Amino acid sequence: MRPHPEGMDAERQRHADAVRRNFRRALLAAMAFVAALGALHFAGPWLGDTRAFALEPLSVPGLVGVLTAPLLHGSAGHWLANASALLILGPLVGTVYPRASLRALPVIWLVSGLVTWLIGRPSFHIGASGLTHGLMFLLLFLGLFRRDRASVAAALIAFFFYGGMLLTVLPREPGVSWEYHLGGAVAGVLAAWWWRRADPEPPRKRYSWEEEEAADADAPGDGAELEMPRPGEVPVLWQRTPARDAVVLPFRPRTAPPDGGEPPAAH
């Protein structure tokens, strides 16, 4: 049984309303988080030395930075770069994947920090770039794993804005924590695999010609003419002649005359 076109329209309308609600929530959450990061950065002179909250690899006190390092930034430019990525990637992933994003964000936060703590250079690592890289790789690989239209569109949008993150997971610039980038990418890929089915696929739009075909197929009696007839109902186009009624014509070979003339005509 196929869903009725009116039922499909109602389902699509409910999905559109849910998308708008998810977008508003994700956008407000991203704006609040970015504002909190900015407040912490500009309040730095009053907070004193914040290196105790930075992530220091292979240091037991530096494990605190797994939780606190994404909240700290070294400069206003550093904060603005991560803020712009969070304001684009955050609402995007929260709109398309409301369930997967809530589960993936804590994993990206923790795994990116732990990877940096294990493989990072002996320095102080701070910033939300691990989180931004995790969101970008989450969107990219969810599109590869799911391959429905919404996930592919979200992956293409993320790649259009931040496709360069594919290169920043490797050492390129001094003073940039590529280890945090790599940890976020690993966490994003793992989260995409674990929760690739957490959100249901959006209802697919049915075109008018598809609805007409569905209506024709559901109409009573229309499919009877397409059914194969039984063997006994197939008309016989020819009858095989029985052996007793067969007529055998005699065959006489042609013989040449002694003088090489024309052979005699058959009677």
Describe this structure in words.
The structure is a single chain. This protein has 267 residues and is mainly alpha-helical. Helices cover 56% and strands 0% of the residues. The chain has nine helices and no strands. It is elongated, with a radius of gyration of 37 Å. The model has no long low-confidence stretch (mean pLDDT 84).
Summarize the structure.
The chain has 267 residues and is an all-alpha fold. The protein is built from 9 helices and no strands. It is 56% helix and 0% strand.
Topology overview:
Elements lengths: L4 H38 L1 H4 L17 H4 L7 H21 L1 H22 L9 H18 L2 H14 L15 H17 L13 H11 L49
Helix pairs in contact: 1-4, 4-5, 4-6, 4-7, 5-6, 5-8, 6-7, 6-8
Low-confidence stretches: none
Q: Note the beta-strand portion.
A: under 5%
Approximate shape: elongated
| SSE pattern | HHHHHHHHH
CA radius of gyration is 37 Å
Helix fraction, binned, reads: 55-70%
Output the structural class: mainly alpha
Mean pLDDT: 84
Largest sheet: none
Count of extended strands = 0
Quaternary status: single chain
How many distinct helices? 9
Terminal Cα separation, in Å? 75 Å
What key attributes describe this structure?
single chain, 267 residues, mainly alpha, elongated
